[in-house]
Design goal:
Blueprint (H helix, E strand, L loop, with lengths): L23 E9 L5 E13 L3 E6 L8 E4 L3 E6 L6
Length: 86
Amino acid sequence: MVDRNHRPRSSRSREVPEEWEGHWVTVEHLVSTNQGALGVGGTLGMLEMVDEKGVVLMPGGVEQEELQFFPWNSVIRIRMSAASSA
């Protein structure tokens, strides 16, 4: 688990409510297509951490999967997922 007590907070990181950490979210982000063009993708996962550099997700909420980092310059939006209420 990520240590949430020792990380800097920036105005950008405060855009994601702290109470969302530990809940299911979808991060909509830029992706490269096979043709080299930019597209938009979405990744569902457990929100582990938010700081001035970006967002960390546990994809699928399964601890055996690798954490994924999304830098702010690739993030379009973050939204609470319907899976949070499941």
